[in-house]
Design brief:
With 188 residues, the chain is an alpha+beta fold. The protein folds into 2 domains: 36 residues; 143 residues, Glutaredoxin (3-Layer(aba) Sandwich), CATH 3.40.30. 46% of the residues lie in helices and 14% in strands. It contains 7 helices and 5 strands. Helix 3 crosses helix 5 and helix 6 packs across helix 7. It is globular.
Length: 188
């Protein structure tokens, strides 16, 4: 009789185990499903650097900006190429960026542009939650990754700085590249 009661208890434990496992699986799937972004793309928001610096989600900007030292030779070369009034840089960034490996790219880029003498009227900063968000240049190019820096000449995309940097880093991993290198290439 003891064996029969143990069998009954083992079956009940097994059934409880299966029930708990199934519930855990369903809850996990619901949790994962709730993390995906199924909403419509949002509109990118044009902002000013000073506004961005005090905006929630950009607390990380100033420490990276202050710690970055642009290459003075590259800055001098970039400065000599800034003769055209029709040049306009566009930066697309994500607030609360926890982009491992690229979080410092946006502050470094802004420091490079400012050190080279690029005036605020020569660049625009758009905040985006995801690269699929709507932006005013969607008919000209797609934002592939955040952060992203593009150079426009008039209304035409001339060069995608970050896409080019990412491509070269992927294709030539043994070579060291800087954002300055690609800002210079964009202006040539």
């Amino acid at each position: 009789m003891l064996n029969g009661e143990m069998m009954k208890l083992s079956n009940q434990s097994y059934i409880s185990y299966k029930l708990i496992s199934s519930l855990m699986f369903v809850l996990s799937m619901l949790l994962l499903g709730s993390c995906s972004n199924t909403s419509e793309p949002r509109d990118a928001q044009l902002t000013q650097l000073n506004t961005l610096r005090t905006s929630p989600g950009f607390e990380w900007f100033d420490p990276y900006y202050n710690s970055y030292t642009p290459n003075p030779t590259a800055i001098s070369q970039i400065s000599t190429l800034l003769k055209k009034d029709s040049l306009y840089f566009i930066m697309f960034v994500n607030p609360s960026c926890s982009c491992t490996g690229t979080q410092q790219d946006f502050p470094a880029t802004m420091k490079i542009l400012q050190a080279a003498g690029i005036k605020e009227a020569q660049y625009g900063i758009y905040t985006m939650i995801g690269q699929g968000d709507k932006h005013p240049y969607m008919d000209r190019f797609k934002v592939n990754k955040l952060p992203s820096l593009c150079l426009m000449t008039g209304s035409t995309l001339k060069y995608s700085v970050m896409d080019s940097l990412n491509y070269y880093e992927l294709m030539y991993p043994d070579t060291s590249y800087t954002i300055e290198d690609f800002v210079f290439k964009a202006l040539k």
